[in-house]
Amino acid sequence: MAxxxxxxxxxxxxxxxxxxxxxxxxxxxxxxxxxxxESAADGGGVVVGTxxxxxxxxxxxYYNYRHQADVCHAYQVMKKGGLRDENIVVFxxxxxxxxxxxxxxxxxxxxxxxxxVYAGVPKDYTGADVNVNNVLAALRGDGSAIIGGSGKVIxxxxxxxxxxxxxxxxxxxxxxxxxDELLFAYDLVETLKRKHAARGYSSLTFYVEACESxxxxxxxxxxxxxxxxxxxxxxxxxxxxTYWDPELGTFLGDLFSVAWMEETDSRDRCAETLEQQYExxxxxxxxxxxxxxxxxxxxxxxxxxxxxxxCQFMGRDPVVSRxxxxxxxxxxxxxxxxxxxxxxxxxxxxxxxxxxxxxVMSRRSLVDxxxxxxxxxxxGGEGPAGRVLGAVRAAGQxxxxxxxxxxxxxxxxxxxxxxxxxxxxxxxxxxxxxCNAGVGDEAVAKAAAQACAASRSESF
Length: 460
Ligand SMILES: *[C@@H]1O[C@H](CO)[C@@H](O)[C@H](O)[C@H]1NC(C)=O
Ligand SMILES: *[C@@H]1O[C@H](CO)[C@@H](O)[C@H](O)[C@H]1NC(C)=O
Ligand SMILES: *[C@@H]1O[C@H](CO)[C@@H](O)[C@H](O)[C@H]1NC(C)=O
Hints:
Distance between the termini: 13 Å
Helix content: 25-40%
Strand content: 5-15%
Domain Legumain prodomain: 356-452
Number of helices: 15
Active site: 169, 211
CATH topology of the largest domain: Rossmann fold
GO biological process, one term: proteolysis involved in protein catabolic process
Pfam family, one: Legum_prodom
CATH class of the largest domain: Alpha Beta
Number of strands: 11
Number of domains: 2
Structural class: alpha/beta
Bound molecules: 2-acetamido-2-deoxy-beta-D-glucopyranose
Order of helices and strands: HEHEHEEEEHEEEEHHEHHHHHHHHH
Shape: elongated
Strand order of the largest sheet: 2-1-3-7-8-11
CATH architecture of the largest domain: 3-Layer(aba) Sandwich
């Protein structure tokens, strides 16, 4: 069994941290397989699809500092979520960081005393390359239509999730570009329709910060092309700048934009849906619905997508996630994974972290498959073993009637298959069901001996 496991494809689907283990060459880790603590109902499952982000600042000039600051921050949000630079396309004029008016050359912040969000931002399209033609071509994924820039486009496929964010001035039915050419809502929505028809995404979420931004989608965006849009303002009102900084002499951000990004920065993105994010951002952008200042944050398009988790589009920030809502059983894997990821390429530390991760995951797979095998041996003749093992008793009933049976069954298992340890405790229900089905510890011991015979010498 160990050799079978050796070739088992392992994936760290730790807790919905869709960490794709592009770990090792060789040994069969290339594929993604769900970790057993996740069920499909948890949003688990085989990980398919890539996350893409298209980030566009439509303005130039120091007095519009905030739009490029928003976009730089958005890049940091995506980056922290694990998206790779090759899947993030950034449009920004790039005249702020080194503007003569910026007292801190090379630094852009998006909140008072904030961190430098300019660091590391890819300069895919800057200056005159930020234009309507290139933005729409990048969104379509049409590299041949691009003129200038890095040539990077959203070459997403039918299983991919795409996030688009735009920040600048707008007007009724239009979004601005630095060269003052207008991006018309109609062309934008047609581009989305074409991308959908070409199976260019599984779902696409589009956040827009601009005045009258509701007018970009109102009455235009179909509800059946897999696009969900959130706008800073409704179709007839202004959106709001925020964080006036007297030292920098400019606004640092826009109200809607800093709201969604600060929410995203501070929460476990896999424990929150886009709908929940919308509600928080809506309340913040309207001062809890008072509209003392602020605007009406709006939703358009396919509302089903709003039930998807934020991390589906923005990835998951492991630091926030780990401290907040990692399932207990997965916390160890997440830590190991980060140790692996943090250590430098080619060092003994990296090799050791990888070996440890591999070992823990093999052990977990072994525990899971042995329990499954035992179920098959015990119940194989009577329908799917999984149904017996996974059965849940009606509320109000104890887990098991005969607790002594449970204890001796666990002992019998451990004798042949090694200690359950913390991870293996997830199988206690299976053992309880074995007892509830009237199977004694002797039969379990026999099945366990058979199930774990091959692996015993090697794995524990
Ligand atoms: C920013 O930092 C300065 C000095 O470091 C401090 O005086 C000021 O109160 C801070 N502002 C905010 C909004 O935290
Ligand atoms: C849009 O915003 C304006 C100005 O705040 C407000 O008067 C109007 O009721 C809003 N309309 C909708 C549909 O939210
Ligand atoms: C809105 O209400 C919440 C909870 O009552 C409060 O914590 C928050 O500060 C309020 N937000 C604004 C912008 O007033």
